[in-house]
Amino acid sequence: MDESINELIEQNSILYQQIVNSLSNTQINFLKALSKGATGFNSSEVMRKYALGTSGNVTKIKKTLLNKEIIDINGNISFLDPAFRLWFKKVFNSTS
Description:
The chain has helices at 2-11, 13-21, 25-35, 44-49, 55-67, 82-92; strands at residues 71-74, 76-79. By secondary structure, the chain is mainly alpha-helical. It has a single domain, classed as Arc Repressor Mutant, subunit A, CATH 1.10.10. A two-stranded antiparallel ribbon has the order 1-2. α1 (2-11) crosses α6.
């Protein structure tokens, strides 16, 4: 199963990179926080740790990522595409 997941991620790597290239630094920081299991994105600790700006900015980030179909908000915030989440964690959490 791991081999097929890695193959799927590899096949979509260019698409995932294009998605990330269309995001602002704060949107990427939000996804970093999400991929590392952060919650309470409006808390001063999370906003400071991940350089998200103000709580108003966090609201705008969530709305933008939701409109771009990158995240889903059903009580909890999660990546809409689980393969993108795995790719993102692999690429960004190994470098930050």
